[in-house]
Amino acid sequence: MSTDPTVAAEPLSGAQVKVQFTTRHPDISLPENTGPILVPTHLRRYGLSSIINHLIASEKPIPFDFLIAGTFLRTSLDEYLTANGISSESTLTLEYVRSLVPPLYLASFEHDDWVSSVDVLSKSSPVSQSSFNVVGQERILSGSYDGLLRVWNMSSQVIATSPPTGGGGHTSSIKAAKFISPSEVVSSGLDRTVRIWKYSEAPDHFSAELELLLELYGHTKSVDSLAVHAPSMKIISASMDHTVGVWSIDKSGGPAAPPQLLPSTQTTSTRSKRRKPTSSDSTPPRRGPLALLKSHTAPVASTIFSPSDPTVAYSVSWDHTLRTWDLLTTSLVDTRTTSHPLLSITSLPDLHLLAAGTSARHITLIDPRADATTISALTLRGHSNAVVSLAQDPESVWGLVSGSHDGTCRVWDVRSLKLGTGVSGEVGESVYTIKREGQPDGVRRVGGEGIKVFSVCWDREVGIVSAGEDRKVQINRGKSVMVGSSS
After folding, report:
1. Residues contacting residue 438 through CB under 8 Å, at least 6 positions apart
2. 3 state SS of 328
3. Residues 132, 202: one domain?
4. 191 with 308, same domain?
5. Based on the domain organization, do 80 and 203 belong to the same domain?
6. Does residue 262 sit within a domain?
7. Is residue 174 assigned to a domain?
8. What are residue 80's phi and psi, to 5 degrees?
9. Cα-based distances in Å from 207 to 116, 201, 203, 227
10. I need a labelling partner for 188 at 20 to 30 A (CA). Which of 102, 119, 324, 429 fits?
11. Distance between CA 213 and CA 227 in Å, rounded?
């Protein structure tokens, strides 16, 4: 076999095209001064991978993916040339990256009821501090329809559970839960409250406590989504009452709670007979919102802080809109109207895009900048039911994961485009589908219970963590799912 880097690794036959191979990764780069290589146009990814492995003299074959003009090559070179009207006399530039690694099933944590929300605390979590850097002490937070928060270690042991109803816990199902820091947690739910908890572990790290620090009142219906910006001591919430709440984490940082929203509101005669508080009472402070942002005309499904400016927030709603808010002035800045109800949101900050999950089974990517000329920059299709949760890939600017009521999570790379859509870059396809472990395809459980996924998050250390109607928190992990995909 020829060792001349200016020719392909296999004998040439039929139509040929010159290809200039490039990569951003020094450990798999070609020898210096490697020029364009003449290759058969019938080659697909496998054949092109063989050429790269030959040229870099790899001891073990490495599977590669190839990008042309920023999108993955999913056809033969000949089909690509034909579809794009490019002459075989041209020189193609192919960027090669290691192929994506499937996220393999790792473990499941069993619950007593549906699991509505999951979050992860690890050394790479956005809310972590420099002191939290012990491998093996990662924590998973889950919120359940049984009204309880649970904190798990990676050995599937519950090391902390929030108090039950009557003991200071939520009085109804929890819908959202997040770590504020390694020592604080926030939760919200059907009881219309947002609650902040002190989280503390025993010295041996095998047990911990959740102590209620603050109750926040202001919403009049279920609070289904939370976002945290710890440096500014702020939380934002999305509610079925059509509003976005803005809250202070500080016990003394917010106004008094609206009296009419407090539990057990009583008449004057009843209040006069109520016993006076004693020094033994331990009712936590109750505060109201810094602001309730009102503009949506239907339930607000999800909200996030802008990744580049914590004074800006985004919210999505059943009213089909994505709205941009200025938190300093509590004013509405921009409204983008889409074709379907929006149920979830995350950001792809390096691409200046927001991803919004819809009731119509797809994900739409939206450029929220004022000078954006179109509403939808890209549509990701593949789910067969509503897309209710989204999270960014922590290791790739191009990747995200989605959770759906179809019982699956899907991993996406926005450079992976579906063929035959008519317009280049219009529709993207998922690169992997994660199914619920132990649940046969298309099978409903006894009693009508299904396998809907309600929540998903993606952590660099722990992996993809998802939860849902099967009463499980499921962990899937691969060594760098999007390895080679980072910019």
Report:
1. 108
2. coil
3. yes
4. yes
5. no
6. no
7. yes
8. -65, -45
9. 23, 6, 9, 27
10. 324
11. 18
For 316-358, the pLDDT digits (tens) are 999 999 999 999 999 999 999 999 999 999 999 999 999 999 9
CA-based angle 67:71:76, to the nearest 5? 60
Between β-strands 408-417 and 331-337, what pairing exists: parallel, antiparallel or unpaired?
unpaired
Give the integer Cα–Cα distance in Å for 348 and 355.
7
- Token pair 């900050």 is found at 349
Nearest CA to 143 among 207, 216, 195, 104? Answer: 195
Tally of CA atoms within 13 A in the half-sphere of 126 that contains its CB = 17
Query: What does pTM read for this prediction?
Result: 0.85
Q: Give me 374's structure tokens.
A: 């179109």
Amino acid identity, residue 177? A
Amino acid at 422: G
**With contact defined as beta carbons under 8 Å apart, do 186 and 233 qualify?**
no
Domain that holds residue 154: 104-251+283-477
CA distances from 340 to 236, 293, 327, 336, 421 (A): 24, 22, 26, 12, 20
What tokens were used for 16?
């040929």
> Do 436 and 317 fall within a single domain?
yes
H-run or E-run covering 50: helix 45-55
What lies within 8 Å, CB to CB, of 13 at 6+ separation is 40
Q: How many beta carbons lie within 10 A of that of residue 417, not counting itself?
A: 20
Q: What is the pLDDT of residues 183-210, one digit of tens each?
A: 999 999 999 999 999 999 999 889 999 9
